[in-house]
Amino acid sequence: MAKAEVAIRRRAPSKKSLETKARILDAAETLFARRGFDGTSVRDIAKLAGVQVALVHHHGGPKEDLFHQVISRRAKPLSDLRLTALESLKSAGEGLTVRAVLACFVEPFLDRTLKDEAPWRAYGRLIALVSADERWREIAADCFDPTAAVFVDELSELMPEATRLQVSSAFVFMVSGMLALTASSWRIGAVAQSDDAADLSGTLLDFCEAGFSSVCGGANPSA
Fold first, then answer.
1. Are 110 and 19 found together in one domain?
2. Average pLDDT per block of 10 residues along the chain, 223 residues long
3. How many CB atoms sit inside 10 A of residue 108's CB?
4. Is residue 25 part of a domain?
């Protein structure tokens, strides 16, 4: 039998297998976000997922590969949301602004990490850890840089007097603020000594819009 025929005849993963892998990835995401990569063991992940250690290796491979899988599984739908928002904005036929483009990138992330259930909140904290550690540079390049490049291109067109380095610097500063908001939004209330609710997404966009204007040579971000 030809190899191609063998491949076709291979059975797809069973529902039980897919559910087991999802539990493993959920457990890994929770623990990596809470303890970091080095503070989390495969045995810890297996215990939280309720499976044998061998199953973690079977579905995730080495711990580094499992970590990559945890990051990448939400990166694709998040990228799709951002790019869809950007395309909808451009299709509307109205003049683009820096703030509107930034909102297409920031809001899909904050809408999930600040408002949705625990898994996305854990993911937000995990991405903050990934972004702070250069050893995960390849994961960031695979999961996030292609989408970032699309937004940097759009922002560069809106601010033609700025260099790409200036736009990229402002973009990374914005991402840092976005991740800090997800990972430690509680600090805002602590510093303010207030429990009052605030539009943190709007405040972040105000801050970033002004930052782009300053860093990128005083370009008018709302023009």
1. no
2. 50 80 94 94 95 92 94 95 96 88 95 77 89 92 96 96 96 94 82 75 93 77 46
3. 19
4. yes
